[in-house]
Amino acid sequence: MKTINDYNFAGKKALIRVDFNVPLNAQFEVTDDTRIRATVPTITKILNDGGSVILMSHLGRPKTGPEEKYSLKHLVKPLEATFGRPVKFADDCIGEQATTLAASLKAGEILLLENLRFYKEEEKGDAAFAQKLAALGEVYVNDAFGTAHRAHASTAIIAQFVSEKICGLVMQAELDNAQKVLENAAKPYTAIMGGAKISDKILIIERLLDRVDNLIIGGGMAYTFFKAQGGNIGNSLVEADKLDLANELIIKAKEKGVNLLLPVDSLVADAFKNDANTQLADNSAIPDGYMGLDIGPKAIEAFVAVIKDSKTVLWNGPMGVFEMPNFAKGTESVARAVVEATKKGGFSLIGGGDSAAAVNSLGFGDDVSYVSTGGGALLEYMEGKVLPGVAALQ
Ligand code: AMP
Questions:
Q1: Which residues are involved in binding ATP (predicted)?
Q2: Which residues make beta-bridge pairs with 217?
Q3: Ligand 1 lined by 219 (C-beta under 6 Å)
Q4: DSSP symbols for 80-119
């Protein structure tokens, strides 16, 4: 796979698939620019080589064609501020205007194309659409790891129509860091899985059982295990059709010598809201009418003890409903323990989505080894699946 640093972009128009799917507020201002900042090294390298840059991305989930709130024109100003130069904008990602603007682009210039998903052809992986996009540039770069698990026109199909295809620096870093927890990870190796459902994470959990020393399970998915073991979990989240699976995982962990840690207690609430009435309860005896919304103090203590001495940590999914401040303590405590393990020389990978949001909102983004930008893509890569966006670059 050719990477950015293998190539001299002088005089070339680079068509870059980026992930600018950023959150916007009601005034269409970017409220978290992590994904924009992530692309700076790739774009800067190309501009510094004397190339020009055509940026293409999706934003949100437009249903049928253009929608103001999903227009990438809202990113022109933030991009101009980031790169310290004017950014041209094509208000259609294909067609005459985009073609003319792309053709007249000079070295050091940036052109941003309108939202790819204003065309249903993008998600369908339409070849004719991909070919039109490909014609805008001379070199194709994919730096959108977050959509690499989708065979969309701009992420995979387009590669058939370009003579040069190159892996961007974000994509490369994501793959390198995921590899560190898949092969030859330093031990003790601890995986922390949380979030709402086991069903989303079952494949990765099974794969991790062959690699890790400790598997910590927290968040909503933990209650299915307690229910499966015959406990009373009150109104806590449960996947009734996954009880057997939960028991099988407990047995498999034992067979493989993996230390499976389930949260022994929870902070339980009588309603799904921040100011609900709460109490502490053991997870196998949650009172009727109550639901577990965060791991409890005994669970925190046990989890932290294991995490802080780990040499490799992979974390995906919060320990509770961390969006509500009263139920954020478990997630916060785990985040601090991951930071401590990292400070002691361990390698820590935070796998996208909510765990990345939690680590970033606590200001720990720089205190862990790597925060992945791709939730679903990272999970699929770790499950051992071939990502179409990566395969297309090979
Ligand atoms: P996921 O996308 O599967 O990683 O799930 C993340 C979501 O799980 C977050 O929005 C959390 O609020 C939610 N979550 C975590 N723990 C619980 C819980 N005990 N009960 C309900 N939802 C939870």
A1: 201, 292, 323, 352-355
A2: 193
A3: yes
A4: HHHHTS-EEEESSSSSHHHHHHHHT--TT-EEEE--GGGS
Q: Which two tokens stand for residue 235?
A: 């109104």
Q: What is the pLDDT of residue 375?
A: 82
Which two three-digit tokens encode residue 154? 């701009």
Q: Over 90: is that where the pLDDT of 360 sits? A: no
Task: Please state the rounded mean pLDDT for residues 119-143.
Answer: 98
Give the confidence band of 34 by pLDDT, cuts at 50, 70, 90: confident
Give the pLDDT of residue 232: 98
Q: Classify each residue of 301-314 as buried b or exposed e, where b means 16 or more C-beta atoms within 10 Å of its C-beta.
A: ebbbebbbebbbbb
Residues 236 and 223 sit within 8 Å (Cβ to Cβ): yes
Place of tokens 């949260």: 263
pLDDT band at 226 (very low <50, low <70, confident <90, very high): very high
**Distance from the alpha carbon of residue 219 to the mean position of ligand 1, in angstroms:** 6
Alpha helices, DSSP H only, in 270-344?
Answer: 297-308, 329-343
Residue nearest to ligand 1 atom 12, measured at CA: 321
Domains, in order of start, for the chain? 4-170 (3.40.50.1260), 185-382 (3.40.50.1260)
**Site of tokens 């997870």:** 283
Q: Which residues sit in the known binding site?
A: 19-21, 35, 58-61, 117, 150, 201, 292, 323, 352-355
Query: Is the preceding peptide bond at 78 cis, omega within 30 degrees of 0?
Result: no
Q: Which residue has the higher pLDDT, 309 or 355?
A: 309
Backbone torsions φ then ψ of 319, nearest 5 degrees: -85, -10
CA distances from 275 to 47, 237, 267 (A): 51, 19, 13
Give the contacts of 31 (CB within 8 A, at least 6 positions apart). Answer: 22, 23, 24, 25
Predicted local confidence at residue 356, as pLDDT: 86
